[in-house]
Design goal:
With about 260 residues, this protein is mostly beta strands. The protein is about 10% helix and about 30% strand. The chain folds into 3 domains: about 20-45; about 50-170, Immunoglobulin-like (Sandwich); about 180-255, no CATH class.
Protein backbone atom coordinates (compact mmCIF):
# COMPACT_ATOMS: atom_id res chain seq x y z
CA UNK A 1 0.00 0.00 0.00
CA UNK A 2 1.49 3.32 -1.07
CA UNK A 3 1.40 6.10 1.45
CA UNK A 4 2.05 9.80 1.04
CA UNK A 5 2.63 12.42 3.66
CA UNK A 6 0.41 15.49 3.79
CA UNK A 7 1.04 18.65 5.80
CA UNK A 8 -1.76 21.16 6.31
CA UNK A 9 -0.32 24.59 7.12
CA UNK A 10 -2.34 27.61 8.26
CA UNK A 11 -0.50 30.89 7.76
CA UNK A 12 -1.06 33.29 10.67
CA UNK A 13 -0.34 37.05 10.20
CA UNK A 14 2.54 38.17 12.42
CA UNK A 15 0.81 41.41 13.46
CA UNK A 16 -2.13 39.61 15.09
CA UNK A 17 -1.39 39.05 18.78
CA UNK A 18 -3.83 36.24 19.44
CA UNK A 19 -3.52 33.04 17.35
CA UNK A 20 -7.21 32.47 18.01
CA UNK A 21 -8.11 35.80 16.46
CA UNK A 22 -5.98 34.98 13.44
CA UNK A 23 -7.64 31.61 13.12
CA UNK A 24 -11.06 33.25 13.28
CA UNK A 25 -10.14 35.53 10.39
CA UNK A 26 -9.43 32.62 8.06
CA UNK A 27 -12.18 32.17 5.50
CA UNK A 28 -14.27 29.09 6.18
CA UNK A 29 -14.47 28.46 2.45
CA UNK A 30 -10.67 28.32 2.21
CA UNK A 31 -10.50 25.89 5.13
CA UNK A 32 -13.10 23.65 3.53
CA UNK A 33 -11.23 23.81 0.23
CA UNK A 34 -7.89 22.87 1.81
CA UNK A 35 -9.54 20.06 3.77
CA UNK A 36 -11.25 18.81 0.58
CA UNK A 37 -7.91 18.72 -1.26
CA UNK A 38 -6.28 16.88 1.64
CA UNK A 39 -9.01 14.24 1.82
CA UNK A 40 -9.23 13.71 -1.95
CA UNK A 41 -5.47 13.36 -2.37
CA UNK A 42 -5.11 11.08 0.65
CA UNK A 43 -7.99 8.88 -0.51
CA UNK A 44 -6.44 8.55 -3.94
CA UNK A 45 -3.05 7.59 -2.51
CA UNK A 46 -4.17 5.26 0.29
CA UNK A 47 -6.82 2.62 -0.49
CA UNK A 48 -9.26 2.58 2.42
CA UNK A 49 -10.79 -0.59 3.76
CA UNK A 50 -14.53 -0.56 4.44
CA UNK A 51 -13.86 -0.64 8.19
CA UNK A 52 -12.41 2.90 8.21
CA UNK A 53 -14.87 4.51 5.82
CA UNK A 54 -18.16 6.10 6.83
CA UNK A 55 -20.46 3.07 6.52
CA UNK A 56 -23.19 3.30 3.93
CA UNK A 57 -26.46 1.39 4.26
CA UNK A 58 -26.33 -1.70 2.08
CA UNK A 59 -22.54 -1.73 1.87
CA UNK A 60 -21.32 -5.32 1.79
CA UNK A 61 -18.21 -7.35 1.17
CA UNK A 62 -16.73 -10.83 1.48
CA UNK A 63 -13.53 -11.33 3.44
CA UNK A 64 -11.41 -14.47 3.42
CA UNK A 65 -10.17 -14.51 7.02
CA UNK A 66 -8.30 -17.80 6.78
CA UNK A 67 -8.23 -20.77 4.38
CA UNK A 68 -11.31 -22.18 6.18
CA UNK A 69 -13.26 -19.16 7.42
CA UNK A 70 -15.20 -16.54 5.45
CA UNK A 71 -16.79 -13.36 6.72
CA UNK A 72 -19.78 -11.80 4.98
CA UNK A 73 -20.17 -8.17 6.06
CA UNK A 74 -23.34 -6.10 5.59
CA UNK A 75 -24.39 -2.67 6.88
CA UNK A 76 -28.07 -2.26 7.76
CA UNK A 77 -30.16 -0.24 10.22
CA UNK A 78 -33.17 -0.31 12.54
CA UNK A 79 -35.69 2.16 13.90
CA UNK A 80 -35.85 3.00 17.63
CA UNK A 81 -37.13 0.27 19.93
CA UNK A 82 -39.14 -1.84 19.55
CA UNK A 83 -38.04 -1.72 15.89
CA UNK A 84 -36.12 -4.67 14.45
CA UNK A 85 -33.19 -4.69 12.05
CA UNK A 86 -34.24 -4.48 8.40
CA UNK A 87 -32.29 -7.54 7.25
CA UNK A 88 -30.29 -10.42 8.70
CA UNK A 89 -32.56 -10.47 11.76
CA UNK A 90 -31.06 -13.62 13.27
CA UNK A 91 -30.84 -12.70 16.96
CA UNK A 92 -33.59 -13.45 19.45
CA UNK A 93 -32.79 -11.72 22.70
CA UNK A 94 -29.10 -12.54 23.04
CA UNK A 95 -29.21 -15.83 21.17
CA UNK A 96 -28.14 -16.34 17.58
CA UNK A 97 -30.73 -18.21 15.56
CA UNK A 98 -28.89 -19.42 12.45
CA UNK A 99 -30.62 -18.87 9.13
CA UNK A 100 -31.42 -21.73 6.78
CA UNK A 101 -27.98 -22.35 5.31
CA UNK A 102 -29.41 -24.75 2.74
CA UNK A 103 -30.10 -21.58 0.78
CA UNK A 104 -26.36 -20.74 0.73
CA UNK A 105 -23.65 -22.18 -1.48
CA UNK A 106 -19.92 -21.44 -1.43
CA UNK A 107 -18.17 -21.77 -4.78
CA UNK A 108 -14.36 -21.93 -4.92
CA UNK A 109 -12.86 -21.89 -8.41
CA UNK A 110 -16.12 -23.20 -9.79
CA UNK A 111 -16.52 -26.04 -7.28
CA UNK A 112 -18.81 -26.24 -4.25
CA UNK A 113 -17.16 -26.17 -0.82
CA UNK A 114 -19.32 -27.57 1.98
CA UNK A 115 -20.29 -25.41 4.98
CA UNK A 116 -19.55 -27.05 8.33
CA UNK A 117 -20.36 -24.27 10.80
CA UNK A 118 -21.77 -20.73 10.95
CA UNK A 119 -21.47 -17.86 13.40
CA UNK A 120 -22.71 -14.31 13.67
CA UNK A 121 -22.05 -11.00 15.37
CA UNK A 122 -23.25 -7.43 14.92
CA UNK A 123 -22.07 -4.11 16.28
CA UNK A 124 -23.07 -0.45 15.83
CA UNK A 125 -20.66 1.13 13.36
CA UNK A 126 -22.21 4.61 13.17
CA UNK A 127 -24.55 6.30 15.68
CA UNK A 128 -24.62 10.13 15.70
CA UNK A 129 -25.97 11.91 18.79
CA UNK A 130 -28.01 14.70 17.20
CA UNK A 131 -30.30 12.61 15.02
CA UNK A 132 -31.27 8.97 14.58
CA UNK A 133 -29.07 7.45 11.88
CA UNK A 134 -28.02 4.11 13.31
CA UNK A 135 -25.93 1.90 11.05
CA UNK A 136 -25.14 -1.65 12.10
CA UNK A 137 -22.28 -3.85 10.96
CA UNK A 138 -23.37 -7.48 10.59
CA UNK A 139 -20.87 -10.30 10.16
CA UNK A 140 -21.91 -13.79 9.09
CA UNK A 141 -19.12 -16.33 9.51
CA UNK A 142 -18.89 -19.47 7.43
CA UNK A 143 -16.52 -22.32 8.21
CA UNK A 144 -15.62 -24.50 5.23
CA UNK A 145 -14.87 -28.19 4.94
CA UNK A 146 -11.94 -27.71 2.56
CA UNK A 147 -9.22 -25.03 2.76
CA UNK A 148 -9.06 -22.34 0.10
CA UNK A 149 -5.84 -22.25 -1.89
CA UNK A 150 -3.94 -19.03 -2.52
CA UNK A 151 -5.15 -17.29 -5.65
CA UNK A 152 -8.55 -18.99 -5.67
CA UNK A 153 -11.73 -17.10 -6.51
CA UNK A 154 -14.51 -17.41 -3.93
CA UNK A 155 -18.20 -16.65 -4.35
CA UNK A 156 -21.01 -17.02 -1.81
CA UNK A 157 -24.45 -17.45 -3.38
CA UNK A 158 -27.98 -17.78 -2.08
CA UNK A 159 -31.41 -18.28 -3.61
CA UNK A 160 -32.69 -14.88 -2.51
CA UNK A 161 -33.93 -16.02 0.90
CA UNK A 162 -31.11 -14.39 2.93
CA UNK A 163 -30.10 -11.50 0.68
CA UNK A 164 -31.02 -10.31 -2.83
CA UNK A 165 -29.49 -12.40 -5.59
CA UNK A 166 -27.99 -9.25 -7.12
CA UNK A 167 -26.03 -8.59 -3.90
CA UNK A 168 -22.67 -10.12 -4.80
CA UNK A 169 -20.23 -11.59 -2.27
CA UNK A 170 -16.99 -12.41 -4.07
CA UNK A 171 -13.30 -12.30 -3.20
CA UNK A 172 -9.92 -13.62 -4.32
CA UNK A 173 -7.56 -15.36 -1.90
CA UNK A 174 -4.68 -13.00 -2.60
CA UNK A 175 -1.86 -13.69 -0.11
CA UNK A 176 -1.35 -9.90 0.18
CA UNK A 177 -5.04 -9.08 0.73
CA UNK A 178 -6.29 -6.84 3.52
CA UNK A 179 -7.09 -8.83 6.65
CA UNK A 180 -9.11 -7.78 9.69
CA UNK A 181 -7.29 -10.48 11.67
CA UNK A 182 -3.89 -8.77 11.36
CA UNK A 183 -3.50 -5.73 13.63
CA UNK A 184 -0.59 -3.36 13.09
CA UNK A 185 0.37 0.09 14.35
CA UNK A 186 -1.30 2.29 11.74
CA UNK A 187 0.97 5.19 12.68
CA UNK A 188 4.00 3.15 11.63
CA UNK A 189 7.10 1.88 13.44
CA UNK A 190 10.17 3.87 14.48
CA UNK A 191 13.74 2.64 13.89
CA UNK A 192 15.31 1.27 17.03
CA UNK A 193 11.98 0.63 18.78
CA UNK A 194 9.87 -2.47 19.23
CA UNK A 195 7.88 -3.52 16.16
CA UNK A 196 5.02 -5.85 17.07
CA UNK A 197 1.80 -6.82 15.33
CA UNK A 198 -1.05 -8.96 16.65
CA UNK A 199 -2.90 -11.73 14.87
CA UNK A 200 -6.33 -12.85 16.07
CA UNK A 201 -10.02 -12.35 15.47
CA UNK A 202 -13.37 -13.01 17.14
CA UNK A 203 -15.80 -14.79 14.82
CA UNK A 204 -19.00 -14.42 16.80
CA UNK A 205 -20.62 -17.71 17.73
CA UNK A 206 -17.74 -19.66 16.17
CA UNK A 207 -15.45 -18.16 18.81
CA UNK A 208 -11.89 -17.00 18.31
CA UNK A 209 -10.47 -17.75 14.90
CA UNK A 210 -7.96 -20.61 14.78
CA UNK A 211 -4.63 -19.36 13.47
CA UNK A 212 -3.63 -21.89 10.77
CA UNK A 213 0.12 -21.21 10.94
CA UNK A 214 2.73 -20.14 13.45
CA UNK A 215 4.97 -18.46 10.89
CA UNK A 216 4.74 -14.94 9.54
CA UNK A 217 6.45 -12.96 6.81
CA UNK A 218 6.95 -9.30 6.02
CA UNK A 219 6.52 -8.76 2.30
CA UNK A 220 7.34 -5.74 0.17
CA UNK A 221 3.93 -4.66 -1.13
CA UNK A 222 5.37 -3.42 -4.43
CA UNK A 223 7.87 -6.13 -5.33
CA UNK A 224 6.34 -9.07 -3.43
CA UNK A 225 9.77 -9.91 -1.99
CA UNK A 226 9.95 -11.35 1.52
CA UNK A 227 12.04 -9.05 3.71
CA UNK A 228 11.61 -10.76 7.09
CA UNK A 229 10.41 -14.08 8.50
CA UNK A 230 9.53 -14.97 12.06
CA UNK A 231 7.52 -17.14 14.43
CA UNK A 232 4.24 -16.16 16.04
CA UNK A 233 4.09 -16.36 19.85
CA UNK A 234 0.92 -16.86 21.86
CA UNK A 235 -0.14 -13.82 23.88
CA UNK A 236 -3.18 -14.67 26.00
CA UNK A 237 -4.90 -11.76 27.70
CA UNK A 238 -5.32 -11.92 31.48
CA UNK A 239 -7.48 -10.43 34.23
CA UNK A 240 -10.90 -11.75 33.25
CA UNK A 241 -13.11 -13.13 36.02
CA UNK A 242 -15.62 -14.83 33.72
CA UNK A 243 -15.64 -17.61 31.18
CA UNK A 244 -15.08 -18.14 28.39
CA UNK A 245 -12.16 -15.76 28.65
CA UNK A 246 -11.66 -13.61 25.54
CA UNK A 247 -8.44 -13.03 23.63
CA UNK A 248 -6.98 -16.43 24.44
CA UNK A 249 -5.97 -17.24 20.85
CA UNK A 250 -4.11 -14.03 19.97
CA UNK A 251 -0.55 -14.24 18.64
CA UNK A 252 2.23 -11.67 18.43
CA UNK A 253 4.46 -11.13 15.43
CA UNK A 254 7.68 -9.48 16.64
CA UNK A 255 9.80 -8.05 13.83
CA UNK A 256 11.89 -5.67 15.92
CA UNK A 257 15.18 -7.11 14.59
Amino acid sequence: MQKKRFDLCLLVPAFVRSPLKAFAKLKSGLIRFLFFLLVVQASAAIPMAMDIQTPQLGAHTLRILSPNILELFLVNTKQPNPGRVETWDWVNGEQFEPPDMYAVEVIVDGNANAITKVGFKRRPVYAPLLNWDLRIGNQLYIQLAQPISAGSSVQVLNNGALWPTNMVFTAVADPLRYSTAVHVNQEGYLPGYAKIAAVGYYCGDIGEMPIPTKQFQLVDAQSGATVYEGTLTLRQDVGYMYTPKPYQNVFEADFSS
